[in-house]
Design goal:
The strands form two sheets. This protein has a six-stranded mixed β-sheet with strand order 6-7-8-3-9-10, sandwiched between helices. Strands 2-1-4-5 form a four-stranded antiparallel β-sheet, covered by helices on one side. Strand 4 and strand 5 form a beta hairpin. Helix content is 32%, strand content 28%. The longest helix is centred in the C-terminal third of the chain and has 16 residues. By secondary structure, the protein is an alpha/beta fold. The chain folds into two domains: 151 residues, Rossmann fold; 66 residues, no CATH class. Bound molecules: adenosine-5'-diphosphate (ADP) (2 copies). GO terms for molecular function: ATP binding; ATP hydrolysis activity; transmembrane transporter activity.
């Protein structure tokens, strides 16, 4: 379902962000991507979404050869992926529901179906009661839930998240993680970059560890020693 073969990514001539990275992820898997700052985690996620282009190697996602997708077909790739970034950008003068509706419109969903689907994803993340609030009125944890709702409006088969629990307190982190596990149980593949060793160690899943751009570990229910 996701397959990387000998992937290399350089920024300019000197920075080797990823070196000969290969692995496969099956449909329905949950994968933690760990490693110290600068290890290449964000770069790896950006290659999957084609926010960055690889230097050599190949990446397959579903039935698409990621590095070969034409620019005018990128939307087809991105439609299959839900993305939760480190910083969630919303339209500040739109309500929670309007922010979700805006994404649905971009996907060509309109009218009653837009209402229905919008409310459905807000329900799924436990935020329907907040649909008419403005984003600034929500806590960071609540905003993260809206970001997750937005990421799943297109029913992606893979959900990619970059440090989704960064800057959250323990309780909010646990809620966000629970949400990802629930979505995973519904069949969505999840790939999550994280520094949250407590979480990785308490809820064991597959762990891919990067260090200096190399994949140094792939454990099927691995733990994680935190980096100071
Ligand atoms: P993290 O370590 O949590 O990924 P960083 O602070 O390293 O966050 O990076 C933040 C953003 O800046 C990322 O999108 C990353 O790709 C980009 N970035 C990191 N290093 C550089 C660099 N040397 N030049 C330009 N952009 C960079
Ligand atoms: P992580 O997410 O694990 O912190 P990154 O993928 O952000 O790691 O960064 C991997 C390496 O690539 C780092 O050395 C970082 O400085 C560098 N890097 C990331 N983005 C860029 C960029 N846009 N331009 C130049 N160097 C970058």
């Amino acid at each position: 379902m996701i397959s990387l073969k000998n992937v290399n990514k350089r920024y300019g001539e000197r920075v080797k962000a990823l070196i000969d990275v290969s692995f496969n992820v099956k449909q329905g898997e949950f994968v933690y991507l760990v490693g110290p700052s600068g290890a290449g985690k964000s770069t790896l996620l950006k290659l999957l979404t084609r926010e960055e282009t690889l230097t050599s190697g190949s990446i397959k996602l579903g039935n698409m050869q990621v590095e070969k997708v034409a620019l005018n077909k990128l939307y087809l790739l991105r439609r299959q992926i839900g993305i939760v970034m480190q910083k969630d950008l919303f339209i500040p003068y739109y309500s929670v529901f309007e922010n979700i509706a805006y994404c649905l419109e971009a996907l060509g969903v309109r009218g009653a179906l837009k209402e229905e689907r919008g409310l459905e994803v807000l329900e799924l993340v436990g935020m329907s009661a907040y649909k008419d609030k403005m984003l600034q009125e929500l806590s960071i944890g609540q905003q993260k839930k809206i970001a997750i709702a937005r990421a799943i409006v297109n029913k992606p088969f893979v959900l990619i998240a970059d440090e989704p629990t960064a800057n959250l307190d323990t309780k909010s982190s646990a809620e966000i993680m629970k949400l990802f596990f629930r979505l995973n149980q519904r069949g969505t593949t999840v790939i999550m970059a994280t520094h949250d060793s407590t979480m990785v160690n308490s809820i064991r899943k597959r762990v891919l560890e990067l260090q200096g751009g190399r994949l140094i570990r792939d454990d099927h229910d691995g733990g994680y020693t935190s980096y100071a």
